[in-house]
Amino acid sequence: MKPNYQLDVADDCSRAVKRACHTNPSVSCGDCRLGELCLPIALDAQEISHLDEIVKRGRNLKKGDYLYREGDEFNSIYAIRAGSFKTFKSSWDGVEQVTGLYLPGEILGMDGISNNRHGGSAVALETGSFCEIPFHQLEELSARIPSLQGRFFRLMGQEIVKDQQMLTLLSSNAAEERVAALLLSISSRNHRRKLSPFNFRLPMTRAEIGSYLGITLETVSRVFSRLSKQNIVAVDNKEIQLLDISALKAVAKVKMGCS
Amino acid sequence: MKPNYQLDVADDCSRAVKRACHTNPSVSCGDCRLGELCLPIALDAQEISHLDEIVKRGRNLKKGDYLYREGDEFNSIYAIRAGSFKTFKSSWDGVEQVTGLYLPGEILGMDGISNNRHGGSAVALETGSFCEIPFHQLEELSARIPSLQGRFFRLMGQEIVKDQQMLTLLSSNAAEERVAALLLSISSRNHRRKLSPFNFRLPMTRAEIGSYLGITLETVSRVFSRLSKQNIVAVDNKEIQLLDISALKAVAKVKMGCS
DNA sequence: CGATAAGTTGAACTGGCTCAAGTCATGTGG
DNA sequence: CCACATGACTTGAGCCAGTTCAACTTATCG
């Protein structure tokens, strides 16, 4: 019924030959398998060891735990080690609006940089762990290590293009496009992590997906049903199988790129 | 009929006592009235003079001219001096999707940082001018001037929160909310520039506004008509008057903040 | 095992879209 | 400088994708 969720992380680790398992809380940036997705890209060994010194490694969280809350003072950004997280804002009437989905290797919390206050909340969607990177120390280090500065500029730039892709996705209506684009996005992000791009578990509920994509949970459900009926995907609750990627890309009109 | 458009810039300049008019092409960052909105905030006199050295000042553009095109190599970011600009992407089928509206003092082009390639195009919506800031030189300078690095991190962070606000706006449907939020956003940005927050000229056509807000141009027009009928705004083509800000905020459900 | 949350499916409703016809503004060439 | 052409805007009417409300089934977890 849910064959590869438990495997997800374990599988990941068993294949790690040179690099240590990123779920081992004591692994340093230089050894972490996620290093190639995360901050350290483009740093040399010595630079990484400087980075290592400021990173607070391997705190664990369970489903529903907050990384930070809307309005909290901004101190750190967070690199996801394992599990998945959503970011959201609570609007005036208390309705929660999902603004992002983050997977291992991705970086969270940059919404606090401009005002020293987080613009939204971040919570774990399942058991997971993360590294905390104190921003002020990162700033100081960046001033001394140009390649780190450059890397972080590029990381923030990535967040900007990601948000803008999402913007165009939400503007050009069509529920099916949005759902298809989300599936393709998760698929390619899994691929980057050396996991199957064809089978994965959705970390969000239908309601969360709907909130993220600007449609109702019922519509999400109906779209899944329709895509199943066309044999484009197989849906077993949160377990997803992509059966016909190119058909799915056609539905998505290839938005939300493959990055 | 259009009393304050021509005044817009002139008025701006006539009030400038200590700071020189930003429409004067030779004005340096230290003297520019827009400095307090633009990059130089938080820099001291000497730091500003370093910045001045790398800024290519005061090029002019007329309506429809491109600042850069989607796919162009990324070299610089651009600070708007006068006029207004839109950013957009052309989707697979050639339909143009507006992703941003930029006014004087604001900074454009950060969508290119992550891939060294612009993710969208930017064109002038009216006659205007800008400063070009070569990014590589800015990076080098940032490594030497911590307050400039910090300033630029914060600027990028601002772009992120702005995009995310837009995201939540587009998810929570309701055409009236979107239009109201846009009007309030322009209003507060004008206020920051010491222009009237109550009277302004919309720089975009109905079609562009619609594309930006994810609704059709007809719907934009109808919303304007409805808001006029309720005496919340007065609309004379592109000339807008906000008659009842608090009513407008109620319609917008106060999204897209006042920043 | 039972309670509560998550997901599916149906039916009626509706906000915004599409298509269409018209007015108004802008600017270009005679 | 006017006339006309083109693009921008408005308004109406019908339609449809997605919403809402509701009833039901299926998972999850103490």
Order of helices and strands of chain A: HHEEEEEEEEHHHEHHEEH
Strand order of the largest sheet of chain A: 1-8-3-6
What would the CATH topology of the largest domain in chain A be?
Jelly Rolls
Overall number of strands of chain A: 11
Range of strand content of chain A? 15-25%
Query: Any idea what the radius of gyration of chain A is?
Result: 18 Å
Structural class of chain A: alpha+beta
Proportion in helices of chain A: 40-55%
Mean pLDDT of chain A, rounded to whole units?
89
The largest chain-to-chain contact, stated as pair and per-chain residue counts, equals: A-B, 49 and 50 residues
What features would you describe in this structure?
The structure is a homodimer of 259-residue chains. The longest helix of chain A has 26 residues, at 146-171. The first copy, chain A, has 8 helices and 11 strands. With 259 residues, chain A is of the alpha+beta class. Helices cover 41% and strands 20% of the residues of chain A. Chain A has 2 domains: 12-168, Jelly Rolls (Sandwich), CATH 2.60.120.10; 174-252, Winged helix-like DNA-binding domain superfamily/Winged helix DNA-binding domain (Arc Repressor Mutant, subunit A, Orthogonal Bundle). In chain A, helix 3 crosses helix 4 (146-171), helix 5 crosses helix 8 (245-252) and helix 6 crosses helix 7. Chain A is globular. In chain A, strand 10 and strand 11 (239-242) form a beta hairpin. Chain A has a 4-stranded antiparallel beta sheet with strand order 1-8-3-6. The first copy, chain A, has helices spanning 3-14, 45-54, 135-144, 146-171, 175-192, 206-213, 217-229, 245-252, and strands spanning 56-61, 66-68, 76-82, 85-90, 96-102, 107-108, 121-124, 128-134, 199-201, 233-236, 239-242. Chain A binds a DNA duplex (30 and 30 nucleotides) through residues 173-175, 205-207, 215-222, 224-225, 237-238.
